[in-house]
Amino acid sequence: MRTKQSKANREARAAGKARQVRSSALGKLIIMLAVVAAIVFGVAIFFKVNTIEIQGNTVYSADQIIEASQIQQGDNLLTVNKALAVGNIKAALPYVEDVSIARSLPDGIIIQVRESVVSFAVMTDTNACWLVGPSGKALERIEPAAFNENPHINGLLISTPTEGEAVSSPTPTALAAALDVMKELDGTGLLEYIRVIDVEKEYDMSIWYDERYEIKLGGTDELAYKIRYLCSILDQLSEFQAGTIDLTQAAQKRATFQPAA
Questions:
Q1: What is the CATH number of the domain that holds 65?
Q2: Omega of the bond prior to 172 within 30 degrees of 0, cis?
Q3: By the 8 A CB rule, do 238 and 208 touch?
């Protein structure tokens, strides 16, 4: 009899402990859910976008960039889809090359852009004219009569492009040569002074700098070195000089300058 009572007591105590464990686990779960709910509520209430700051823009206004991003005041700061906003800006504003977006607690968004401030006019194979950025992106269509009024590329035709997308050409080697020249010039401070890039013969390219210097580059071999060499040469010439700079033998560390007559 005692054995049966003892067994019953043990079972009762075990059942009580099990209930306590379940009750404790349920209580902890409820507390965790309450904490999560409080955090979510706090995020929804307190972390809202109030200010949007635009940096680096010269072509587009701050309002244009904000509108293109589709980020609005009142959006949840912590759940703003930055990748989507970057894509929206690039798709809507072709002059924008790079975008970065950062959160600034407690209520700010900072959008940093890098725009194409230099572009070159290029004719299409249908006699239209487009402005193309250094990265090879079609920026906007212009009147063919404005070709020579803008910095332009000779010896290259592009296929009819789509605004904001990379251009293609029925002569891909000429396009590649032009893009290589722009790529190497970009960031040197020279690109904005280039008036003409001539790639009619990819092995005998030339560029015109500030309407003062014709610069013979030859082919695309050692192009990065040629551009660095050009920078050092221009530093040594006075602003009153003009003429022809021949870099076709730059690989042999030789260059010539022929003053204009």
A1: 3.10.20.310
A2: no
A3: no
